[in-house]
């Protein structure tokens, strides 16, 4: 882990903090006796600021000159304000000594609510009813329930676990798969290894994706895998678009081999206005807003404060990213500690 022996650390923030978040971080530093230079970079100055930063907390999707920043040798720690590390783990960062921590699970409440909205929107046929409403038509058709449904969750980290807590009271059966299938909570009937996925798919009514985008998950839902789902199944993707091959998804939905999809994320964002996904009647698209609810900045700031305290007292950081895996190992994940403290 990086050392905390910097004389006057320069901490650069690049996520949309308001003055109260800035003040909260200053207070945290003062509480632990650290005299630091705290800078709210904003996106315009991020490149210049990062060249002189010891610690960075923010999004990696901003134009960061990572090769120069890494070559400068000053940056010790990146606290990503995103859970997904796909924009942060550049080859230079991976090869460097820079410690990287993610926001895994930090946005779990927000993502669970988004998933809930997409799932119930599809189960209760809201796309059909919205269109009928616009046409002033009183259309009635059968709707579906969540209770008694079998719901698969792929990726059982911070988001998957919180989602299971939110859905369990509906008395559906929840079955999760994970690369590290440990610590099974009571919310799920089974926590299976990732390899069990293909056997699970034909038994599901709903499939929810909450895994990170990695070499292993990229494109993993191709036509063959989608075809394993029953034709009445619904697919919800609140993870990363590239986990699902969009062309295969469109074909499966259009042919009725899949009943519906709710996607907060797409292969390319923004989604191309010409994409056939827009016009499918059984699809709800939201523009990658799952983790964007207003409360996220408060939650992110609290999490950064926790890790700042741990960094300067040389305790292991929460959500330390295993750069080879592309996400934190379960033993370092914030979800293992209530409140992530
Ligand atoms: N829609 C949004 O706005 C939004 C918000 C936050 C996160 N995300 C996405 O959701 C992902 C998950 O977020 P999180 O906070 O739960 O992260 P996390 O790191 O806490 O959890 C990811 C889990 O997926 C598991 N996993 C990895 N590879 C797998 C595989 N091949 N099969 C099954 N499981 C696998 C990991 O072991 C881990 O338990 C992020 O990586 C990010 O891409 C999207
Ligand atoms: O990964 C995340 O936290 C969200 O998708 C925002 O990038």
From TrEMBL:
Domain D-isomer specific 2-hydroxyacid dehydrogenase NAD-binding: 116-290
Species of origin: Botrimarina hoheduenensis
InterPro entries xref list: D-isomer_2_OHA_DH_cat_dom, D-isomer_DH_NAD-bd, NAD(P)-bd_dom_sf
Gene: hprA
Domain of life: Bacteria
Family of the protein in this entry: Belongs to the D-isomer specific 2-hydroxyacid dehydrogenase family.
EC class name: oxidoreductase
EC nos: 1.1.1.29
SUPFAM superfamilies hit by this protein: Formate/glycerate dehydrogenase catalytic domain-like (SSF52283), NAD(P)-binding Rossmann-fold domains (SSF51735)
Domain D-isomer specific 2-hydroxyacid dehydrogenase catalytic: 41-321
Protein name: Glycerate dehydrogenase
